[in-house]
Amino acid sequence: MTSESYSILGEAVRVLVILLLLIPVAYLVTRAYGVRMRKTGLGRAMQVLEVAHLGAGRSLFLVQVGRRLLVVGMTAHSVSLVAEISEPDEVAALIQRTGKRGHGTFGELLQARLTRERQGEDENR
Length: 125
Known about the structure:
The protein is an alpha+beta fold. Helix content is 56%, strand content 26%.
């Protein structure tokens, strides 16, 4: 082996040692940061209540933000607000039903809401 081969081999060993040291450190830092975030209460103002996967790379999220519910659509390239639900009775009903995991999935609830909105549009015409 030439001195150039030893140089390349030495560099490869150094890179491997650095990676073996960095990976556990990165893991520990992210774990500690996550625990700190939970303890300080950050992230509690917003909660994803349910997710409806619509197909490849497309989903709807029911997100609670304070006393409001947001229906957020997400694709591989965009995130957009689909609907905002702020009526107290409807918010309470949706939160209760998504917590039960029985009849009335998010998809069914969304369909019912869209049907009511369509009927309201038809009555306004």
